[in-house]
Design goal:
It is a single chain. The chain has 458 residues and is an alpha/beta fold. The chain folds into three domains: 81 residues; 105 residues, no CATH class; 195 residues, Rossmann fold. It contains 19 helices and six strands. Strands 3-2-1-4-5-6 form a six-stranded mixed beta sheet. Helix 18 links the parallel strand 5 and strand 6. The longest helix is centred in the middle third of the chain and has 29 residues. The protein is elongated, with a radius of gyration of 28 Å. It starts with a helix and ends with a helix.
């Protein structure tokens, strides 16, 4: 870009805005971000094309031109908030239905609608305001617990699956293409919400000691992993799956079978009755069928793709693998796994028609009853059934009768719980009740535990 071009750009951008951009760049460089002169000019070009009175548009324009590494977005946001301070707008009284002036706000149904509307309208200011209220109300920040713990507290109370459903249900008459585009936009928005909440919690709770990233990737907590850690976990899954498949294959080949006495005696005739070469019965290893039922609601939506991808990678150890996902409805995704080269994006699971048939919160009883009504023929006496989920009922009746019915028909029934064992049977968790109906319950909160558990049931 020539000097004349530079003057033209600056001429378009208001002088006050230019000064603010320069101040922002100074803060970014001081924090260690490598912002080049060319990127500064690109930022001014971008600002010249947006409404500078709209803080959300200004934020997007500057962040997309000044920061190339998504891991640095949090540092950008802090610098941006310092240079372009937020102006809090009082919430209209008409929106607070059924509340007195001295009642605290909560993230109930009305605020969920507000959040969805703000997401759809791109009103980042409103989104941040609602998220800050949720963090203040639900994070329960104490110095002894981690950032991830408090972040998940907020996410569970907000119920991202419900937000995702409402985001997509605004117009049921849209074409399939429009719905796919909207689903991708919703997933990006939810990813940003997670990052914002984690940053807000971090600001309220100073970190202490080493982070989880300092440890082995296989031991990272799957439910609480950040976006960067999830990427590393996806990259680590394939080699772990290959090693697991090799291990299972060797274990199957090691079986030698039992002694076939009749054939051994017959073979010993040529050696004077001495059984020089004992003959073993041919071992016919039985490979059970496998049915997987995965809860993909709330935070477990990020975990489910790992177990599904891992089981698909070792599917040759089973005669047949059929995979299902459920929230309050249930759908089969076996063909999706067959066509997927790696870990599936969670939004490809949540977009399936029939997965959400009610309010979008996990309902084991309704979902497993639907499974028995439609897919009961998939479970036989040679089938191993694996139920994957946190067993949280959301104050609804558990699916004890349905699980008992499945266990009665199946060869084996196992439960994989991605929550740490210390959280089982706390709050609305019904893990202990389901455990009584299962052959075994496994904690699979890390990739290492997940691999070992699959090895134990295969």
């Amino acid at each position: 870009m020539t000097s004349n071009d530079t003057r033209d750009v600056i001429g378009v951008v208001a002088e006050a805005t230019v000064a603010s951009i320069i101040a922002l760049v100074s803060r970014l460089r001081a924090s260690g971000l490598p912002v080049s002169t060319g990127e500064v000019l690109d930022a001014m070009n971008a600002i010249a094309t947006v409404d500078v009175t709209s803080r959300p548009l200004v934020r997007i324009a500057l962040r997309s031109t000044l920061v190339k590494d998504s891991a640095k977005f949090a540092e950008f946001d802090r610098a941006f908030d310092a240079v372009f301070p937020r102006v809090r707008v009082a919430r209209p009284e008409a929106q607070i239905v059924g509340k007195s002036s001295d009642e605290p706000e909560s993230s109930g149904a009305l605020e969920t609608e507000d959040l969805v509307r703000a997401m759809q309208e791109g009103d980042l200011e409103r989104v941040r305001h609602l998220l800050e209220s949720a963090v203040d109300a639900y994070s329960g920040v104490v110095a002894e617990r981690s950032v991830e713990h408090h972040t998940q507290r907020v996410l569970r109370r907000m119920d991202l699956a419900e937000i995702h459903r409402r985001y997509l249900d605004t117009d049921q008459d849209r074409s399939e293409l429009d719905r796919s585009i909207a689903a991708a936009e919703a997933q990006r928005a939810l990813d940003e919400i997670r990052k914002l909440i984690e940053q807000m919690v971090t600001d309220r709770l100073p970190p202490a000691g080493p982070t989880r990233a300092d440890g082995d990737i296989a031991d990272l907590d799957l439910l609480h992993a950040s976006a960067d850690e999830l990427l590393r976990l996806r990259q680590a899954l394939r080699p772990l799956a290959r090693r697991l498949a090799s291990r299972l294959g060797q274990r199957r080949r090691r079986g030698r079978g039992t002694l076939d006495m009749r054939r051994t005696i017959r073979a010993s005739i040529g050696t004077g009755g001495v059984p020089v070469a004992p003959v073993l019965r041919r071992r016919r290893p039985t490979r059970p069928g496998l049915v997987v039922l995965c809860d993909v609601s709330g935070s477990t939506a990020e975990f489910a793709p790992f177990i599904l991808a891992l089981l698909h990678a070792v599917h040759q150890e089973f005669s047949r693998v059929r995979s299902f996902v459920f929230v309050d409805g249930v759908v089969e995704i076996s063909e999706l796994l067959d066509s997927s080269p790696g870990v599936i994006d969670p939004r490809h699971l949540l977009d399936r028609r029939g997965l959400v048939v009610g309010d979008g919160r996990s309902d084991y009883r309704r979902a497993l009853r639907g499974f028995l009504d439609v897919y009961s023929d998939s479970v036989t006496a040679r089938t191993t059934v694996l139920i994957v989920g946190d067993t949280r009922s959301h104050e609804r009746a558990p699916a004890l009768a349905e699980v008992a019915e499945i266990a009665k028909v199946a060869r084996r029934l196992y439960l994989f719980n991605p929550e740490p064992m210390a959280e089982w049977d706390t709050g609305d968790s019904r893990c202990g009740e389901y455990a009584l109906l299962s052959n075994a319950v496994f904690e699979v909160s890390t990739l290492r535990q997940l691999v070992e558990s699959v090895a134990a049931i295969a």
